[in-house]
Amino acid sequence: MSDAYINWKNSLKTNNGIFLISEDRRFTHDESEYEADMDFSTLTHGYGVIQLMKSLGCDINGPAIEIGAGNGLISVSLAEAHGFSDFMVTDASSVFVEICRNNVEKYAKTKSNVSYGIFNGDDLKDLPDNVYSLVCMANALHHIEYFEEFVTLVSAKLKIGGAFVCQEPISDGFLMLGVLAKAYLVFSKKLSKRLIEKLEELSLTMSNSNRRDMNKSHLEDKHIFNIYELQQLASKTGMRLLVYPNMGLEAFADGLNETKSKQESFSEMSKGYIQHCLNWDQDLKDEVFSKFDELFKFIDIACGGGYYPPVSGSFCMVKER
């Protein structure tokens, strides 16, 4: 570990073994209910991060930090799998940090050099430069309004050969889902008032998330990402982007072999989003699944043997200069 990193960490205050890097920020929802049914004993996302980095020849000798850890989707298995000199698990909410720490203690079979911190990504500038082998996030970057500035700062924090690894929504598939919702509203005649409201909400969410010409400070989910946009951003900040569409980080737990066969279909990804991410009554979700089923099947069949329109995916930006 570099002296800069050691000195920075030693300068931090702690409370109950948790580093206080930023002010504590509670969320509008109950953190304890967030994906409370998740079986952490089966998660392999952290192994996927390590295997992805090794396959790409990344540096794994320096410290690592996870930002926006939530309840520990990556943290539990990365605490078990990592070979970094230090691994700090962070979230802006002290409640999430406690939940995550408890999950790591309970489910990680082995762990070493793991620490925890309250950290808001807005304070990324305060972390030491050129020291990290890994900065990772799962489903957190899209909550950051000025993500271009954030990624630029991430690059400054990485050492050469380090990686920014994340799992985020992609515009191609989500825009298609929004178009399907809008088209159904335009061409269908007998729809319930509830369904009309929800389809309007869905199409508007997809549109707003993709737009770059509006203030998004009031939105919780601010962005879906265009791959070309991220390629340009990575190149501009001295990094090389690799994209794995419709694959979560767990897909790489056994390496990068046959990645195309590991992708989920457009219908699987879209239904998963509707089922798990939309606060709709189940009968409305089932109605949408029924009405959209033929449309989903058409897209899946049309993409047979190739890649489906990406609804989300894993990204790895490797710092080269």
Automatic annotation (TrEMBL):
The keyword Methyltransferase applies. Transmembrane segments: none annotated. It comes from the Bacteria. Gene3D superfamilies: Vaccinia Virus protein VP39 (3.40.50.150). InterPro entries: Methyltransf_11, SAM-dependent_MTases_sf. Residues 66-166 form the Methyltransferase type domain. Keywords: Methyltransferase, Transferase. Coiled coil: none annotated. One of its GO terms (molecular function) is S-adenosylmethionine-dependent methyltransferase activity. This is Class I SAM-dependent methyltransferase. It comes from Leptospira ilyithenensis.
